[in-house]
Amino acid sequence: MADVIEPRRRSVQCASPKGLHRIAYLEWGDPRNRDVLVCVHGLTRSARDFDELARSLCSHFRIACPDLAGRGDSDRLADPMLYAVPQYVADMVTLIARLDTESVHWLGTSLGGLVGMALAAQAGTPVKKLVLNDSGPVISHASLERIGAYVGKTPLFRTLQDAVQYMRTVAAPFGPHSEAQWRFLTETWLRKNADGMFQAHYDPRIAEAFRAAIPEKDMVLWPIYDAVRCPTLVLRGEKSDLLSRDTTTEMARRGPKAKVVEIPGVGHAPTLLGAEQIGIVRDFLLQGETP
User: Fold this and answer.
1) How far apart (Å, rounded) are the C-alpha atoms in residues 147 and 71?
2) Domains plus CATH for the chain?
3) Which tens digit of pLDDT belongs to each residue from 75-101?
4) What is the pLDDT, as a whole number, of residue 2?
5) What pLDDT shows up at residue 290?
6) Which residues, given as ranges, of the chain have pLDDT below 70?
7) Cβ distance 282 to 56 under 8 Å?
């Protein structure tokens, strides 16, 4: 039987205006590999979202999957208003320095895509290929309101099965998944508390900064996207309420002129758990690479 590929658990110390905090990350693949892929999750998720993709691609890349501040095994921030893209970008620059590499590929889901887009837009950016998973420069107001309605609420569950049922409801836009996949998406989102109850493993104060940043209309970030110069792939869930087809059409026309692939039967956001979705990412990242 083949060995099950497992990641190395590591961390790096980062700075904010209110002090130091530790960012945890999972590292997959050969630590000597200079071809690095950084995978960053969505608003309330964690590094574990990329387990399947990392197992599939770690023979090609050294893969680093961080928990953003306040999620998973990373420290919570002293000031909840720092839960915003500028702090996340600063933390990821520190992570890339720890990885001791001059350039990285970047795969970001939702918020992780916004962080990658902001980093890729910088002069002298280390990002050489960018994958935006249901993430782009126009974020619909309706989707921000929908997410704002549940983020920060950390219900308690007596059993894992109760939590799975909750996940299937709030994450219904993820599209069809097997029972094992729903269980995985739930287990990696939870921790047991001191009372033996299950609850979401992220800082509920993330909601404070999120809600404060919701504009009266759609969130528009075209100047950031237009500054990106590296090859870019956009994955869009066919039924996404966050990233519209009109926006992805425009993304293919301007800025880095992204390649756009729409995932049928999925809303916000594709989970990258299935072989077909992973294959789309693999083909893009390996295109033009030396065998």
Assistant:
1) 16
2) 8-139+218-286 (3.40.50.1820)
3) 999 999 999 999 999 999 999 999 999
4) 46
5) 53
6) 1-4, 289-291
7) yes
Sign of the C-alpha dihedral, residues 120, 229, 266, 210?
Answer: positive
pTM higher than 0.85 for the full model?
A: yes
- Non-local (6+) Cβ contacts of 43 within 8 A are 110, 111, 147, 151, 206, 210
As given in the structure block, the two tokens for residue 264 are 């049928």
With beta carbons less than 8 A apart as the criterion, state whether 16 and 78 touch: yes
Beta-carbon contacts of 231 under 8 Å, excluding residues fewer than 6 positions away, are: 128, 129, 130, 256, 259, 284
| Strand-by-strand arrangement of the 259-263 sheet | 8-16, 19-28, 62-66, 36-40, 104-109, 127-133, 232-237, 259-263
| pLDDT of res. 136 | 98
79-83, long-range: CB within 8 Å, 24+ apart, which pairs? 79/16, 79/17, 79/18, 80/203, 80/205, 80/206, 80/208, 80/209, 81/208, 81/209, 81/212, 82/16, 82/17, 82/18, 82/209, 83/203, 83/205, 83/206, 83/208, 83/209, 83/210
